[in-house]
Amino acid sequence: MSTELTVTSNRAPNHAARYLFLSLLDQEWPELKLGLIQYVWPTYRKLWRPASPPYDPETTYSDDRRFIATRALEHWDWFHRSPDCELLKDAMTAWAAGTGIDVINSWFLDCALASLSHFSPAIETPDSKKFDWVPGYLIDDTFGLPLFEPRFENALWVPSDESWELFAQRISNEVNRLLTIYRKEVQSRWLAHKGNHTNYAKWTIARFSGLSWNAIVERFAIIYQGSPQFKVSEKVAEFSREIGLTLGETLGTKDKKPSRNRHKAAIG
Hints:
Layout: E1 3-5, H1 15-28, H2 31-46, E2 49-50, E3 59-62, E4 67-70, H3 76-79, H4 86-99, H5 106-116, E5 150-152, H6 164-189, H7 197-208, H8 213-219, H9 228-243
Antiparallel strand pairs: 1-5, 2-4, 3-4
């Protein structure tokens, strides 16, 4: 009997690692959300309008359906191509450029949009203390994970050729085998935090914010035999690959600590 389990072949991000990254982002780089609220929220808010019946599945709703906007607002890949969102595209691009974020990290821009969507458009200025970075892919009910969808090419029971007990056992064995494959696939994308993952996430955020390797080593008092800067760069590269984060080559090119409004961790 030939069976197959449909999953995506491309390397998918470790969602647990992304959760960890986002959960530490405000602690390690609080200025990032302040800029998002100050420079992006006013334009984002203007794209919402009071809702009126009937319900329109082609739009997106906010604040218990009191406000309505184009569904393009839900994803960067949608709205940056939408003529209705040109001003928001400009605001988001300027905010990203001002903080050194490469727009190739569309998943992170989705997180920014999803985080803003938790505030009602009726609010002129969101309370930064109530701001939480949330994964943008939560908009998708599957969380970016594959469904368990086993396909059987020989799932026909012919009573004259096979007893019901043998057929049931054969199918059960195949399901169990595919469940094992599926479990490993999902776990590879949603692993629990282990070892020094929290430190690696913090170092990655520090690099993401523009700190040099020397500044990161100094900030976190990192000690390794040989070159601690090289070791940190290795771990940041590994963690970045896990979460699908692209760090610009020009980040952290200066060894001096950034100003206070650049990164909280650099405040001595």
